[in-house]
Amino acid sequence: MREGYAIEMRDICKQFGPVIANDHVDFAARAGEIHALMGENGAGKSTMMCMLSGVYRPNSGEIRIDNVPVKIRSPKDAMKLGIGMVFQNFRLVPTLTAAENIVLGEKSSFLRGPKWMKNKQAEIKGIAEKFGLTFPVDVPVWQLSVGEQQRVEIVKTLYRGAGIIILDEPTSVLTPGEADQLFDTLRQMKNEGKTVILTTHKLKEVMATADRISVMRKGRMIHTIDRSETNERELARLMVGKEVAPERKASARTRGRPLLKVEALEVHADHGRKALDDLELQVHEGEIVGIAGVAGNGQKELAEVLNGLRSWKKGSIVFNGQEIKTASVRHMIEAGVAHVPENRMKSGLAGGLGAVDNLLFKSYRTDKRSRFGFLRTSGNRDWSKSLVEKFDVKTPDIDTPVQQMSGGNQQKLLFAREIDHDPLLMVAVHPTQGLDVGATEGVHRLLTELRDAGRAVLLLSEDLDEVLQLSDRVLVMYNGRIVGEMSGDEADRETIGMYMAGMYGHEDEKLAEEVAG
Fold this sequence. Notes:
Layout: E1 5-16, E2 19-30, E3 34-39, H1 45-52, E4 60-65, E5 68-70, H2 75-80, E6 83-86, H3 98-103, H4 113-130, H5 146-159, E7 164-168, H6 176-191, E8 195-200, H7 203-209, E9 212-217, E10 220-226, H8 232-240, E11 258-268, E12 274-284, E13 288-292, H9 299-306, E14 314-319, E15 322-324, H10 329-335, E16 337-340, H11 344-347, H12 355-360, E17 370-371, E18 374-375, H13 377-390, H14 407-420, E19 425-429, H15 437-452, E20 456-460, H16 464-470, E21 473-478, E22 481-487, H17 493-500, H18 509-516
Parallel strand pairs: 3-8, 3-9, 6-7, 7-8, 13-20, 13-21, 16-19, 19-20
Antiparallel strand pairs: 1-2, 1-4, 4-5, 9-10, 11-12, 11-14, 14-15, 17-18, 21-22
Helix pairs in contact: 14-15
InterPro entries: AAA+_ATPase, ABC_carbohydrate_import_ATPase, ABC_transporter-like_ATP-bd, ABC_transporter-like_CS, P-loop_NTPase
GO molecular function, one term: ATP binding
Organism: Cohnella faecalis
């Protein structure tokens, strides 16, 4: 046994039916370090951490905490051993306050009266402030931003005494600013002697924060290395098993006619707040238009309006020469608008159904897919198999529920359905969120191929690197308006960041010039 490891997993195997998720994996992390566990979607990294946190049990192998063999049969066992996990999909009760979520599960926690809760709120505030994780403790969780909800999850693990903290894809739902704030917190945890384990595939973030890096591929542990001894290119090669082409700017081409015209659009959000305010934009054939902005500035509502999911109060939308009068999902599909939503498993795919049914969602009414109201079962299965093969979707069978696929394969299936519908406009919202470097490269290729075929792409993303890499034009949204526009060649992170912060309004031009200069 090597000295100094807070956690060690030896010869771990985990199998789900015929699928081997972890194949004799060894993993170890020290106290007082940030350890990144990397790998493509489906590499087995999340399964490893779920066994460490008690969600799954290994079929074989041994787990040691401070060199002592332990049995972790449940999350409760894990917490007793000082292990806490913050999942990618938060496990909070929306109607309870942040403090109530954190003390939830304590004996008689809601029978001890307001004085007890007030003391707990003060204790939670103290922990949050110590690690730079402030949030309103007495506000219902549903009213908090995504970043604040993640802080609640992290403070919950700290409140319960975790010394080993696991974060599963922690920045996939955060803005760049929130991600930077999170990394400051993780460094502080490290300085307090805690073990921080990140499961991720974002190379830049790993190189900026991790002390050591372990790489998994196809259920096996490939390599563990100090950050100082590697680089992004080497990590990408280890993850995918081959050289990954360096990112390069998509080549611009002559754009065609205006396909989408939005003028003076006013849209209200779910709670009556004005989400889009006098918004104007155009998207031409043969171009990718990237929209950058901090979450909550109207991007979600814009995507919903363009896909027929939300109505508007004022303004006009003209698509392919025809004015859109009312919100209708079916009309927008038939008009030629494709949609890759922000949350593929919430509003893009039906997790309990297989590939065939998910691929049919937008075309089951067509003559190719049905006859006299009855689906062409045999032909549809052959069609589904051809799409799965064409888009390289890895699945045991076309009837396997898509919720059992990796995130990258779910996204490829979603793109297969949308592109097969031969759209004129693709509205892609965070299309690579939660995807590894290989899957991201594939999604970017699909978007540029659409553009090169004369189609239009509206890319809404909080990943500035993605926006800068793909876009022929960049628009920046702030407070429901387009506040900045620049060509892809002219755009840079600093300028976009200023627009995103609202610092290029008329009253702020002088300040912006001083900061930029």
